[in-house]
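User: What would this chain look like folded?
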Amino acid sequence: MALMTPKTPPGVMELLPRQQVAFQTILDTIRRGYERFGFVPVETPVFENVDVLLTKSGGETEKQVYFVQSTGALQQNRKPELALRFDLTVPLARYVAEHERDLAFPFRRYQMQRVYRGERAQKGRFREFYQCDIDVIGKDSLPLYYDAEMPAVIAHVFNELKVGTFTINLNNRKLLLGLLTVAGVDGPDRQAAALRELDKLDKVGREAVITSLCQGESQLDQSQAEHLLDRLGQEAGTDTVLARLRTLADSQPELQAGVTELETVVRGMRALGVPDERFRLNLTIARGLDYYTGTVYETFLDACPGLGSVCSGGRYDNLASHYTKSRLPGVGISIGATRLFAQLLDAGLIDAAGAGISQVLVTQMDPALMEDYFHMATTLRAAGLNTEVQLEASKIGRQLKYADRASIPLVVLMGGEEQARGAVTLKHLASGTQREVARAELVTTARELLGLQPQNVR
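Assistant: Here's the prediction, encoded as C-alpha cells.
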C-alpha cells in the first residue's frame, strides 16, 4: 500500500512543541489579565444552530461559514442544522439571551476559543484561529465608564505580553456620523458607504479614499471629500482634537453626543492609569456600520505598523435583540491571538527557541537507582518544579542532548558513588554551572540555579 503524504490542512496554525509553549504563554498572560479586572470565563459550543448563527450575518458572512452535516443527513438530502461559529459575539448574544435570568448584570465575561471562517488560504489569514474576547453586558443601560475600562484592560495585557510599545486608537461612531452630516453626507446608505471608504484610509491612502468617496455611493464632490478628510486627519494631542471638535458640536446633535462620550471615555482612561502615550484619537476608524453604535477601538504595535490592528472592538446598543425583548447594551474588545502570535513570530518579536515545560530532568545513570530517581522527582514536583525522569537507559551525553533539545534548563545527575555518600550533582545547561550538593539541598539548589526565589519567601 502506498504511503499517504502527511500534510497540514491549509489555513490553520500548527506549531512545534516549543512554539506551542510560547503560544500557550501568551494565552495564559491574556487570561490572567482579563481575570485581574474581574472578568469571568465562559465557553460555548464550537457549533451553533444555523438559524441562530446566521441571524445577524449578511450574504458575505454566510459564504465563509462551515456547515456541520452528519452522513445520515447528507444521505437524506437534509439542509444543515448546525454550523461552526465564525466569531464569539453571536454565541455570546445567544448565551446571554438564553441564560438572562441566571446571570448577574452587568455581566463581565471573557471567552478564549477557536473560531472558523472559510477564508481563502493565504499568509496571515486563518480558517481556524483563537479569539480572546471580553465584553460587559448591561441590563437596560451601561455607563460609559465601561468603555474607558476596555482600553485599561488591553493596556495591562499588552504590557504583560512585553511585545513593545503599542497605541490604542479611539473614535466614536456618533461623532463620525455627525461629521459626515456636517460635510453634507446625509442618509444611512450614503453614510454607510462613506464609512466603509474612510475605514480604508490607513491601508490605501488619502487620494484613493477621496476618489472612492467621489465616485462611489457616497456621492461627494472633490471639495467635500477633501474638507472631510482634513477634519478627520488632524494630527494633534487628544485635548486639542477634542477642543476643535467641541467648537463644531453645537451645529449637530449627533456630533455633540459623540464628542461628549469621547471626552468621558478619555477622562476614565486617564483615571484608570492609561498613559496618554498609549492612546490617540483616530477619527477615521469605523469598525462596521451596522454593529457598533458608539466608542470604537483599534490597537497597533508601534514597531510593526504593517501588522495592522491586533486588537479591536467597541460599543453596541443592543446585543441580543433577535433573541430577547430585553435591552442588553454592551461594550467589548477582542485580541486575535493566532494572527498576533504568527505575525510576532515572523517579525522576530517572539523567541520560541527556549520555550519549554519541564524545568528539571532527572537523568538515569544507573538503572538500579530508578527508585531514588523517582523519589527525587517526587520531591522536586512537590516543591513546585516541573520535573521529568529519563526512563530509558542511554548514554549520559544523549540524555543531556535530549534536555537541550527539549529546552529543559536543569539536569540532575546521580550515580552509585554519589548515592553512597548522599550527594547529587545539578547542572545548568545554558550557563554550564555544575554543583554537587547533599540530597537534602536538592530543592534549594535547584531553585537557585533556575533563578527562582527560595520556598516560603513571600
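The longest strand covers residues 107-116. If you want, I can go into more detail on any region.
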